[in-house]
Amino acid sequence: MLIAMALIPAGDTAGKFLTAGLHSGGTPVAPFFVAWSRFALGAIMVAPFVAHLVEPRLFADWRIWARALLVACGITSILTALSTEPIANVFAAFFVGPIVSWLLSVWLLREPFSTARFGLICLGFAGVLLVVKPGFGMTPGMGFAILAGMFYGGYLVMSRWISNVARPRALLFSQLVIGALIRTVPGLSAMPTLTVPVAGLTLVSAACSMLGNLLLIIAYRRAEASRMAPFVYTQLVWGTLFGALVFGALPDGLALAGIALLLISGLASLAIRERHLAG
Fold it and tell me: In whole angstroms, what is the distance from residue 40 CA to residue 247 CA?
C-alpha cells in the first residue's frame, strides 16, 4: 500500500507536465487523452501476464463496470485539477476520498464503527476545508480535486467489496480495459502530436498508475478497507514533495495547516486501529 501511494502521485506528476503544458513542446494535453492513455497503455502492458487469468464472466458483473467507471471518472477529474492547481493542494483536496471510503465501508460493508475514528475523520475533513477554502478562494480546479476524491472513495470501497471475485491481476486488467473503452471516444478525439517528450511522459504516467493500482488491489485483498484508509494519507507527503522538488511550488499557510491536520488525522487513526488489534 505504501509503495502504491508513492507510485500514483508519481504518475500524476507526469500527468501534470502534460495537462499543464510544462513539457518541452509547451502545448497542454487534454486530460481526457491522458486518462484514456493510462488505461489503454496499462492494459497493453499487463495483458501478456494476465490474459489467461481473465474469464469472460468477469465482465458480466455490474460491480466490475461500476468500479472501473468510478476510477475512470476519478482519474479524469484529478488530471483536470492538476492542469491548473499545485499538486500538493490537489492531493490534499483529493483526500475527501479516505473519508468517503471509511463512511461507506461502515455503512455498506458493515465494518466496525469507532467514535474516536469518526472524530479523526472530522478533523481530516477540516483539513480538506482549509486547503479547498470553500466560499472564499475555491477555484474550479479544486472543485475537480474534490470530485476526484469522492469518486476515489467509492472506488476504494468497491475494491474491497469485489476483492474476492477474481485474482488481483485479473481485476486490474478488467479495470484497465473498461476504463479504456469508456474513454476511447473523448480520448482519441483529443490526441496531441506525439513528440518524444509527450510520448515519454504518457508512458511514465500510465506505468506508474498501473503499478500503483495493482498494488492497491493486492492490499485491499489482504486487509479491511477501513484499515487501509489511513495509509492513503502518505500520498500527501509524496504530493507535497513532488510539488516542491519538481515544480518548485509550496502550499500557502492555510493549505499547509490543512495538510498537517490531514496527516495527524490519518496517523492517529492508524494508531487507534493498531492499538485495538493489539488489545
Answer: 27
